[in-house]
Amino acid sequence: MKKPIHPGKTPSNVVRTRILETAANLFYLHGISNVGINEVIGKAGVARMSLYHHYSSKDDLILAVLDHISAQRAEIIGNALSGYHTPETRLMAIFLILKETVHEETFRGCAFINAAIERAKQEDPIHARVAKHKRMIQEIFLKLAKEAGADNPDLLARQLMILWDGAITQSYIHQDPEIVSFAVDAARKLIAASLREKQEDS
Known about the structure:
The protein contains 9 helices and no strands. The chain is mainly alpha-helical.
């Protein structure tokens, strides 16, 4: 358990961040349905009133956690893309991120897919937030596919998105990080084929 935070002595943003990061870790490791507010409070070392000052309910906290993780993913992807200078290599850079992710000791698959499974109804705000994140990732693929001059950017973005999610899921299910290598190879072939078709048509 982290050192307790005393209300009135600790900046509000510090308390909020600790709650958010603690909840994100617990939800990812154990599942959002298996973690109660009391556990978050205990692990974060905050008062109950501090948690409810920032988050009106457990669902409100879950949504904030998903937004937090989504922003982190976007930052990681942005940093990865900055190291490459052609659209083709930038498309592949996104997949290379997965090679690092699946080797992490605490890897438990995709936090967003896990959340969507636990909240399967599409009208559930949590399920909707997952869909929003996945659209964000696909839109990055689409933007890069257009910049690369892909024959059918929308199709390529959808295909790469399927490979992305499939690689994460299969790596976790089978506890085999090398599965990502197959996805990387498949992505490289898809990108090359899409660009070749565009060149042949021109």
